[in-house]
């Protein structure tokens, strides 16, 4: 094997590790798979129809402008302006090949090796992995209980090499939601210290409310200190089409676009056309899916309220339940393997989202129906 560089020692995706466990497993009963949060349902018909139309078009497989289809940039800017206080312009939108790429190009454009970024715990594992491979110091704030990070402790973590604070709301893996007031306070802290707030809003449609997630776009010169990240995968059930977005200062996004050019040239047109069709014509469908998953969350919370088998639901939201297992004398990876081999339940270990073992598990409940959630509780209690 050739010499390995910066990826040496980097963990593999916990999703891949879960599937590797599954490949060696012989289930005794139907598997309850809570490992991945990708939608298990088909996209709306209007999206599928548009994909088929573009696939047959003479220019359907060509490159698009690096910053994204103009119509999609405008459609997302218009939606954010409609749903949030303040204004977002199409020039403040960069379309990327998924929200993961949005984070990677934004983080790399913000930092040099030796800089640091502050990450709220529990973190999204790909964020932490990317900063590690880029040689950026990760400074963790908060704890495994998924509460809002203490702003005074966060302020104490900032120094002259700090470039950004990274927040995810609703959280992955926790589902926890930061309030508009909390987000405003974090933003003001970033303004004070002349750093950037990077806010991942992949699950913004799954907050259980139509109220705005924040009013940050209404702040004077918001784009000087804020980059928001967005995904179309969950809203439109198109994770495989790889389309996301970063929203921020146009001059900064032009720097991030240099990295998009090195990796993907541009986000795939087919995904961008799918997202555009969804933004234009599937608003009602999106609302129905969010309401359905919200009802699933309430059923999951009620089912877990009795701490079946000692498994404690610490927080939940969007697609996720953040659960503490009861075994203080066992490694969480062993608990995950045991749940699969003895109860045919597949989950992700919390060690993928925290720097140490805090006895946490991520349950992606959104792809289970109510009967399966009830069955999950019975198996946990065995």
Question: Overview of this structure, please?
Answer:
There is one protein chain. The protein has 382 residues and is of the alpha/beta class. The protein folds into 2 domains: 14-42 and 285-380, Aspartate Aminotransferase, domain 1 (Alpha-Beta Complex); 45-281, Aspartate Aminotransferase, domain 2 (3-Layer(aba) Sandwich). The protein has helices at 14-23, 45-55, 70-83, 99-110, 125-133, 151-156, 180-192, 233-236, 250-263, 269-281, 283-304, 332-343, 370-380; strands at 32-33, 93-96, 116-120, 137-141, 162-168, 196-200, 226-231, 244-247, 312-317, 320-324, 345-346, 348-349, 360-364. The strands form 3 sheets. Strands 2-8-7-6-5-3-4 form a 7-stranded mixed β-sheet, sandwiched between helices. Strands 9-10-13-12 form a 4-stranded antiparallel β-sheet. α4 (99-110) packs parallel to α5 (125-133). The mean pLDDT is 94.
Q: What are its keywords?
A:
alpha/beta, Aspartate Aminotransferase, domain 1, 7-stranded mixed β-sheet, 40% helix
Largest sheet: number of strands, sense, barrel closure? 7 strands, mixed
- The percent range for strand residues is 15-25%
Question: Order of helices and strands, N to C?
Answer: HEHHEHEHEHEHEEHEHHHEEHEEEH
- Look at the structure and name the CATH superfamily of the largest domain: Type I PLP-dependent aspartate aminotransferase-like (Major domain)
Identify the CATH class of the largest domain: Alpha Beta
Compute the separation of the termini in Å.
45 Å
CATH-derived topology of the largest domain? Aspartate Aminotransferase, domain 2
Q: State mean pLDDT (0 to 100 scale).
A: 94
Shape: globular
Number of domains as seen in the coordinates: 2
- Mind telling me the C-alpha Rg? 21 Å
Number of strands: 13
The CATH architecture term of the largest domain is 3-Layer(aba) Sandwich
**Structural class designation:** alpha/beta
């Amino acid at each position: 094997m050739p010499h390995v560089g910066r990826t040496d020692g980097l963990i593999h995706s916990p999703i891949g590790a879960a599937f590797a466990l599954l490949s060696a497993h012989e289930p005794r009963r139907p598997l309850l798979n809570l490992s991945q949060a990708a939608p298990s349902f088909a996209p709306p018909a209007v999206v599928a129809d548009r994909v088929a139309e573009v696939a047959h078009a003479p220019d359907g497989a060509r490159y698009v402008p690096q910053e994204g289809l103009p119509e999609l940039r405008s459609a997302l800017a218009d939606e954010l302006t409609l749903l949030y206080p303040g204004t977002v312009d199409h020039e403040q939108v960069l379309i990327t090949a998924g929200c993961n790429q949005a984070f990677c190009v934004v983080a790399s454009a913000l930092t040099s090796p030796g800089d640091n970024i502050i990450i709220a715990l529990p973190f999204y594992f790909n964020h932490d992995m990317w900063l590690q491979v880029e040689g950026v110091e990760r400074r963790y704030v908060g704890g495994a209980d998924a509460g809002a990070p203490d702003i005074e402790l966060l302020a104490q973590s900032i120094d002259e090499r700090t470039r950004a604070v990274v927040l995810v709301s609703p959280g992955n893996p926790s589902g926890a939601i930061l309030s508009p007031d909390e987000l405003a306070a974090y933003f003001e802290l970033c303004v004070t210290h002349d750093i950037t707030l990077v806010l991942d809003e992949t699950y913004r449609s799954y907050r259980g409310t139509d109220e705005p997630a924040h009013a940050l776009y209404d702040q004077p010169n918001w784009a000087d200190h804020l980059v928001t990240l967005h995904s179309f995968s969950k809203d439109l059930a198109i994770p495989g089409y790889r389309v996301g977005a970063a929203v921020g200062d146009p001059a900064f996004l032009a720097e991030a676009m240099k990295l998009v050019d090195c990796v993907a040239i541009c986000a795939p047109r087919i995904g961008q056309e799918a997202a555009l069709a969804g933004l234009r014509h599937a608003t009602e469908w999106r609302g129905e899916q969010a309401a359905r998953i919200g009802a699933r969350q309430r059923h999951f919370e009620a089912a877990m309220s009795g701490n079946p088998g000692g498994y404690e639901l610490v927080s939940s939201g969007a697609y996720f339940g953040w659960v503490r297992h009861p075994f203080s004398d066992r490694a969480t990876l062993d608990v995950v393997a045991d749940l699969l081999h003895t109860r045919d339940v597949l989950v992700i270990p919390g060690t993928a989202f925290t720097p140490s073992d805090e006895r946490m598990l991520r349950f992606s409940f959104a792809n289970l129906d109510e009967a399966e959630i009830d069955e999950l509780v019975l198996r946990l209690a065995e």
